[in-house]
Amino acid sequence: MPLTIEGRVPSRWAEKAGSRAVVSISHYAKRAEFVNLALINNMPDAALEDAVKADNACFRAARRDGVTLAIHLCRGNNRSHWYAEGGYDAIAEKLFATMAVDRFLLEYDDDRSGTFEPLRLVPRDRTVVLGLISSKKPQLEKADDIARRIHEAARYFPLENLALSPQCGFASTMEGNLLTEEEQWAKLRLVADVARRVWS
Asked: What is the domain class of 5-199 according to CATH?
C-alpha cells in the first residue's frame, strides 16, 4: 500500500516516501455548515450540486500529471471535539458520482459515521481511504477490530481500492487534539501495521 501524503508537500518528500503528492481539498471540513446540512438535514439537491461544482472547479485547476486529487469529508475537528454526525447516505449518490477526485477520505471512526453501505455508490476506479482510527481519542484501537472493519467495508467496495488512515488530522486547528505526540505516533504505527497485514 503506498503511503499517502495529504496536502501540498515538496516533491522531494513525496519521492522519499515512495508516493505521489496528493492535493487534498477539505472544502466540506472548512465549511461545517455544508456537512451539517448534508449529513443531518439532507442538503437540498441544488445546494449540493453548487458545492460539488465549486469543488470540481478547484480540482480541474489542480489536475496535472503526477498529482492525485483527494477530498476529505470532515465532521469537524477541534480539541478532540466533532461538530456533525450522520451517515453518507443522503449525499452519497450525487457526491461520489460527480466529485472529480481520485480518492475519498471518509471518517468511519465511530457510530456517528453511519454504515459502509454508501460505499457501493463510489465509482470503481476511485480509492476510498477509510478513516477508522480516531485522531481525537488517545486510546489505541485494536488491530483486529480495524482489520475486521476493513473487510466489512470490502463487502461494498473492492478491497484493492480501499486504504486506511486516521479519521482526521491530529491538529486541524492551532490548538490540536488532546493526544500526546507519542500517542499520535502510536496511531500512525497502527495504521502502517494494519495496512501491511490486510494488503500484503
From this structure: alpha beta
Distance of CA 108 to the CA centre of its chain: 9
Place of cell 468511519: 108
Distance CA 93, CA 99 (A): 10
| Per-residue DSSP letter, 163 | E
Cα 26 to its chain centre, rounded Å, is: 9
pLDDT tens for each residue of 67-91: 999 888 876 565 444 555 567 887 8
Task: Give the list of residues 6+ apart from residue 174 with CB closer than 8 angstroms, or none.
Answer: none
Domain regions of the chain by residue span? 5-199
* Closest CA relative to residue 107, chosen from 23, 27, 18, 29: 29
pLDDT given for residue 94 in this prediction: 86
| Closest by Cα among 106, 21, 100 to 55 | 100
Give the residue among 121, 75, 104 at the shortest CA–CA distance from 163: 104
Instruction: In whole angstroms, give the CA distance from residue 8 to residue 23.
Output: 6
